[in-house]
Structures are given as structure tokens and as C-alpha cells.
Amino acid sequence: MDWAQIVTAISTAAIAGVVIGLTIFAMPMFRIVGRLSGTLERLLVGLENDAVPLLESTKSLVSEANKVAVSLRTEVDGIVDTSQEVRERVMNAVDAAEDRLLDLESLLNVLQDEVEDTVLDVAAALRTTRRGTAIFGAMRRAFLGSGKKRKRKRRAR
Questions:
Q1: Which residues, at least 6 apart from 144, have a Cβ–Cβ distance to it below 8 Å?
Q2: Which residues are CB-contacts of 97 (< 8 A; sequence separation ≥ 6)?
Q3: pTM for this predicted structure
């Protein structure tokens, strides 16, 4: 045998020894890894069993919260719409009241002008009546004499 073949045989035997040693050393490690794998699998199954109801409960809670939010939004929109309608009605009522007050002011101005004209007409009529009465009295005195003489004549009868 040549030295190359001897070195190859020794190398092959050494490599085989190392592989056998690693295999013997790794066997307990594989068992530990297997146990850890089983433990991890049981832990994951346990977590899954616990997490599924928790996730379902969370989904249900989120669903209910969404329903409440939608209901609340609907109510708030209704309140806003009602508020806008009330505000519009109040503004219309204020505008109508303002228009009526302006009409009333105009009516009162016309009424005041008419009353002033009527008072002036009545004053003029009274003045004219006083003058007419004074003229009638003067004519009566002139034509009939003084009223004292007639009264005496009536008493005497």
C-alpha cells in the first residue's frame, strides 16, 4: 500500500469515528429537542385553545362597538338635523315678526297722520262753528233785541 492509500484509509476511519461520536452525542440532543418540540407543540395548542375564544370574544366586542358607534352616529345626525330645522323655523319666525312690526309701524304712522288731520279738521270745524254761533247771536240780538227783555216778557205772562 502506498502512503496515499494509508492516509486516505486513516482519514476515512477518523471521519467515520467523528460521525459515530457526533451521532452518539446528538442522540440525547435529538431526544431533548423532541421533548422541547412536544412541549412547544402542547404550549402552542394550549395557546391556540385559549386564544381562539379570546379572539372570538374580541371580534364580538369590536362588532358590538361598531354597532353602538353606528347607532350613536345616527342619533347625533338626527339631533343635528332637528337642530337645523328648529334654527330655520326660529329664523323664519323672527323674520315674520320683523315684517309684521314694520307693517304695524307703517300702520301706526298712517293712523297718526289721519288722527292729526282729523284733529285739525275738528278744530277748524269748532272754530267755524264758534264764528257761526257768534254771528247768529249778533244777528239775533240785532233783530230780536237782547235776551233779557224777552225773558221779562215771558215771566210777565
A1: 150
A2: none
A3: 0.41
